[in-house]
Amino acid sequence: MKKKLLSTVLSAVILTTMLTGCSKEDSTQTQAPAADTKTDDSANKVDDAKTDDTTDNTQTDASTASGGGKVYYLNFKPEQAGDWEELAATYTAETGVEVVVQTAASGTYESTLKSEMAKSEAPTMFQVNGPVGLATWKDYCYDLSGSEVYGQLTSDEFALKDGDEVKGIAYVVETYGLIYNADILNDYFTKDYAVVKSVEEINSFDNLKAVADSIQENADDLGVKGAFTSAGMDSSSDWRFKTHLANLPIYYEYQADGISSTEAIKGTYLENYKNVWDLYITDSVCAPSMLSSKTGEDATADFALGEAVFYQNGTWAYTDLSANGMEDESLGMLPIYIGVDGEENQGLCTGSENYWCVNKNASEEDIQATLDFMNWCVTSHEGCDSLSYVMGFVCPFKEFENYPAANPLVGIANDYVSSGKIPVAWTFTTMPSENWKNGVGSALLEYAQGTGEWSAVETAFVDGWASEYAAVNN
After folding, report:
1. Cα pseudo-dihedral 370, 372, 373, 377, rounded to 10
2. CA–CA dist 103, 89 (Å, integer)
3. Among residues 97, 19, 21, which one has the least CA distance to residue 429?
4. Which of 27, 34, 126, 216 is 20 to 30 A from 277, comparing alpha carbons?
5. How far is CA 307 from the centre of its chain?
6. Which residues, other chains included, contact 93 with Cβ-Cβ below 8 Å and sequence gap of 6+?
């Protein structure tokens, strides 16, 4: 991946995302516990050191710099839990500074954060999803504007601000769409019954549906169980549909109305949402009646074992797919087409809901220890290597120009942008609450199982948005 292209992609995409209101799942906000209103002016001066553009990969004495402080990081990403624990152990071995990493279970980050923040030993390092998340937690967020890690950002567009204060820093940029098995799809193109002869022809919902229907009808001949992986609706998987898939109708409504958020969604593109959901649950490896028990691991297995051709997920899925034996050349990614005008120019869904924050109510020593750890993660060889090559992240920091992502799905995302396709912004960060998502998810499952009507999804989407927005914003 070319460095200049990566920089251009990241800047363009994040700017778009920020302008639209900015596991992947539990990122809208519950009410935070009452913040400690005590302020400590000295804390705002903890890290006024100027950023040094050079990177010192020699061993540092962060223990001395942090004055004996410690770090407690509440990690949002379950798929990287072990990786963060290993990186923390490396830092502790190198510096003597204690770093504890706790990872919230999938779909529980907000409730876990609320619980942990109420404890005497609260996280010193946590994350929010964007402006909606910041509205809940900004009273806990230390101003990072004078910190070294802030100075490492390649652009101010990656900073989450409240007025002049920097409350959060995006540490990873991600992309999602329809991951496909290139081996099976290329085999399909050779068949007499194939409705298209190349992946480039799959550039609209109509063409996607025609291909999926054809694959489903000829599953035995192709050696697959279905066109799509199971659309599991347990907490390890339902975020893919109640959040990520739901992003598409919200994005296009915002585009049509020229807005970046709303207190009352109209549901202009809910019929398109229905059409894609119908495709997922009918041209599938399993019956719709089984979705309540299907998990994210089931979907990964469906795809990695070659039982399905299409898998809605993102760049973060690469680690699991690779670990399950998939080769890089077998992976491709398409946009999620929903049947809107001009979608042949649509790119992948790209943005960030991962902003690091530092707990301003922590002790001065712990704040400094946390700032040191964050800066080490994005400047040291150990940190950059882990974030880029072990975790597979695209990180918007200066040093990462020397650590181009090895993830082939990232390269595909860049190719879409370089070819002039328009990325779909992560408008799901404007969803009013987790309760709203859960309401939509429950209605989707009821509809899929045949125990509910699509009208209930529309009600949860539109009426639920208005009521949840009003509740969250008093």
Report:
1. 140
2. 15
3. 21
4. 27
5. 25
6. none
DSSP string, 199-266: GGG--SHHHHHHHHHHHHHTHHHHT-SEEE-----STTTTHIIIIIITHHHHHHHHHHHT-S--SS--
The per-residue pLDDT for range 249-260, each reduced to its tens digit, is: 999 999 999 998
What residues of the chain score a pLDDT lower than 50? 1-30, 35-66
Distance, CA of 199 to CA of 414 (rounded, Å): 17
CA–CA separation, 74 vs 359, rounded Å? 11
Could you give phi then psi for residue 177, rounded to 5 degrees? -175, -145
User: Any idea which fold 177-350+432-472 has?
Assistant: D-Maltodextrin-Binding Protein; domain 2 (3.40.190)
pLDDT digits (tens, 9 = 90+) for 342-374: 999 999 999 888 999 999 999 999 999 999 999
What is the side-by-side order of every strand in the sheet holding 71-75?
99-103, 71-75, 125-128, 355-358, 165-170, 159-162
Give the residue extent of every domain in the chain: 3-173+352-424, 177-350+432-472
CB–CB of 409/179 below 8 Å? yes
Q: Beta strand pairing status for 355-358 and 125-128?
A: antiparallel
**CB-hemisphere CA count at 13 Å for 109?**
26
**Nearest of 429, 325, 393 to residue 26 by alpha carbon:** 429
Domain boundaries 3-173+352-424, corresponding CATH code: 3.40.190.10
Up-side HSE of residue 34: CA atoms within 13 Å toward CB?
3
